[in-house]
Specification:
It is a single chain. With 400 residues, the chain is α/β, with parallel strands linked by helices. The chain has two domains: 5-47 and 294-398, Aspartate Aminotransferase, domain 1; 63-290, Type I PLP-dependent aspartate aminotransferase-like (Major domain) (Aspartate Aminotransferase, domain 2). It has 14 helices and 14 strands. An eight-stranded mixed sheet has the order 2-9-8-7-6-3-4-5, with helices on both faces. Helix 3 packs across helix 11 (277-288) and helix 4 crosses helix 11 (277-288). The longest helix has 26 residues, at 292-317. The termini are far apart.
Amino acid sequence: MIKDLTAFYSKAALNMKRSEIRELLKMTRRPDVISFGGGLPDPETFPVKDLEDISCQLLRDKGAIALQYGPTEGEVPLRQEIAKWMSREKATKPENILITVGSQQGLDIISKVFLDPHDIVVVELPTYVGGLQAFNAYRARMIGVPQDDEGMRMDLLEKTLAKLAKRNKKPKFIYVVPDFQNPSGVTMSLERRKKLLDLAYQYEVPIVEDSPYRDLRFVGKPIPAIYSLDSENHVIVLGTFSKLLCPGLRLAWIMAPTEWTDRMIVAKQSMDLCSPSYTQLIVAEYLKRGLLPKQIENIRKLYGRKLEIMLDALKKYMPKGVKWSKPKGGLFLWIELPKRMSANDLFLKAIENKVAYVVGSAFHCDDAGQNTMRINFSYPSEQQIVEGIQRLAKMLKANM
């Protein structure tokens, strides 16, 4: 009998960390707990009838294709439709699209293709925990650049890149979530997007633009996507249908320059051979029928209303000293407690008060953010939002 099973793990496996969010959310499954923790869409937005109709027709007309293995890069009809969708902002070709099983697989593929142990990745501070998890699995070294209300601070990014250049170090890429960022809800300004590209060109560093929430804007005009401003093929884009249709389809995509896309296809082949043809062809037909714009508009109305209710509740019930972001779209907002308070230490107290959030430190590559938390407004009902904020505020007041 083997005494020490861990002795057989690879260094990469030993370096893997469980998602703090997934672990903490296990504690929020009690029916009496109002959870602001997950990033779940509201099931009311799922277009069940349309997908049922398309699915039945697909099985009748193209069942032999839909239920068979498909090409690694994805089914041609879906890649064509995604290229059309992305061409709203900049001409995109199907050959630059790679279909993935969710954006998390996209992050893993990018990490697999670009990262060796100890390679440098520049990230926002805070940033998406799934990105941190993917990069950490490949033993990358992450350098965080703080953000403010306009996104990643370009003055600090410039100093970071200059400092690395003096040491003959070059990041493998800069990872950003520019629209309604997870976790902060912040959107990067147009000026900073342009400056980001200028710095990327100057220091010859690719940009990974993770864009799951871009179309979920409730107020104001959209800011051009970073890839639409790119003139030198420096940008890799991650997109997903999880927030626009439903996460159960597990469909997302990578858009990248042809040479990088080809290498990513090879990387994906050893993972799963191909994404499911069945769900790909369902979504391709959904897009072909022109149903997505109306679907997005329905989501915007519902989530926009929920965000208003949450912001009103925060203003009404939160004690002095607590600050929060005011996003114009997306699924999340960011709460900052007074410096002396720890959202980590208060998490179990929140559960005792039957409300849950995600600790902000999980989104920091440097273990900072102990006094911050992320809360979600898309999943809980309007009534739960008000009651949950009341519970959270009451707990914070009692522990200030």
